[in-house]
Amino acid sequence: MIKTENVTKYFNRGKPDEVLAVNDATIEIKKGDFAVFKGPSGSGKTTLLSLIGCMSRPTSGRVIVGDRDVSRLPERFMTEVRRNIFGFIFQQFHLIKGITVCDNVMLPLYPVGIKPSKLRESAALILNNLGMSKRIDFPVQRLSGGEQQRTAIARALINNPDVILADEPTAHLDTQISEEFLTIMRNLQQQGKTIVIATHDPLVYEKDYVNLIIEMRDGRVREIMKN
Amino acid sequence: MALEKHRNILDYTLQSLLKRKLKNIGIIMVFTLVIFTASSVIFLSYSLRQEARLLLKDSPEIIVQKMRAGRHELISTLIMTEIGQIPGVSGVEPRYWGYYYDSGVKANYTILGIGASGTEKNRVLSGRMPSRHEKNIAAIGRGIAEARVIKKDLGSVLYLQAADGKWMNFNITGVFESDSEIMTADLIVISEDDFKTLVGMPDDAATDLAVHVSNEAETPTIAKKIKERFPDSRPILRDEIIRTYDAVFGWRSGLIIALFMGALIAFIILAWDKATGLSAEEKQEIGILKAIGWETSDVLEMKFWEGLVISLASFMCGIILAYIHIFFTGASLLAPALKGWSVIYPEFRLTPFIDFYQIAILMSLTIVPYIASTIIPSWKASITDPDTVMRG
Ligand SMILES: Nc1ncnc2c1ncn2[C@@H]1O[C@H](COP(=O)(O)OP(=O)(O)OP(=O)(O)O)[C@@H](O)[C@H]1O
Ligand SMILES: [Mg+2]
Fold this sequence. Notes:
The complex is a heterodimer. By secondary structure, chain A is of the alpha/beta class.
């Protein structure tokens, strides 16, 4: 499903503040995997996640999604891959303030050209499944942390993606809500989706359904554990 | 499909604009003020110019004045015969006019003595004009009627003090209902005979002479001949007068343009502020939109709508307010600076003339740069990799 081959990512290449964030990473994630990137702060988890999610391009090496090399695609096609294959859940949720839960969830598909009524229908369905039916027309800034995250999950699911990418999803949540989040992810995995989570929270990577752990250190992949 | 896409993006844009209501209303207000000032000036000076042209349309091709030491003097009507014999001249007639200062209302009137023909007849009048030798009868502009608190009813009496100190009384037989208010508002038309008495003018004199020319192309040649034969005369061509009007109105609107520049500078600062920096919040929003699957072009489309909605709304408000200001309230804010020599325009109402060409220019000078200043910084933000939103 997703492969990286000798992927390296520099920030500010050639400048005094040059950073080698990912160094020669070769990994493979299969369809239906529940994968975790683990490692200390600054080890390159987020960077690797954004590389496979077509949010940035590697300095060298190849990123393969499906059977396409996406690392050299023009930006239009990168966007297309991003929209068709991935759903993102950000650490800070990154909901758009000032608009409702439903509008936030519909947002990724606005440029696709679907009738708003249709869009609303599918958004409501997803929100229902996440137990958010009472909050559909709520302004997002008044939601609790857990509700915000479920809104973010719904937004990641609206395009029915094959792969869900989540960066530190439990960092801002208490244990109970973190567990709820993981249950939702587990269900999605069982529906056939691929889950990739970057985290240093043991609550996440110690779950027995996590079948792939990629451990990072200083930008390098230090260990790959499969079960 | 494609249409839905644009509709969706426009919908979202409107939502975003409402979200930052206060800020956007502020921008629209500044913008509206700029458009209002600019289009007020354009409307006013354009319609003043149109009115001047309208009035001059029927005026003679050449006016001959007598000059002494650079000063305009009364001209002798005895030279009329000789001017009339110049080939190409189709008619010569004396004109009688002057200004009258009314200390009671501290205003100048324009007084016209009606001669043998007189172009004044073209003016829209209710009632009637005095004829050439008819004494103690006047037709007056609406402005005078109101300044003097004379009832507009025909039959009221107007008093003017003559050159010899005696008071003359005039029965009002007509009031101008002109569509070209600026020229008739302060006008008093009396007979030629009364005019001569009023200003103490000899019988064979006139204020100036109107010379009609049969072929307009010959006008400059004829003017030259008149000048040769009467070296102390000054022939004034109609084209020159039109140009002078243009210059005067141009100069006056210059004052307002100074005012307008102030507003424009405010606008430039506003646009510059937008062009140079997006707020952190806006940048993040662009990053989020890109990360969840919007293309650069979608983000730019949204910013385009944003700029268009704001600038178009301001433009409409500004233009409509300016239109009301100029044509319904008589340019109440600009009038003091733009009006003619007279101060009596109590009911100064202009006929709406709109120069669409100037509006189009104004539009392209404000809407286009504003949209550009909205789009360009967003374009910079939206071509960077969206992964920056993953931190921060
Ligand atoms: N846009 C950037 N410009 C410069 N340096 C960057 C940029 N993004 C990340 N880095 C650097 O790259 C390195 C890897 O960062 P990354 O965010 O991938 O680490 P991480 O493993 O996700 O850390 P954390 O657990 O704190 O989220 C860090 O040293 C970081 O400072
Ligand atoms: Mg990180």
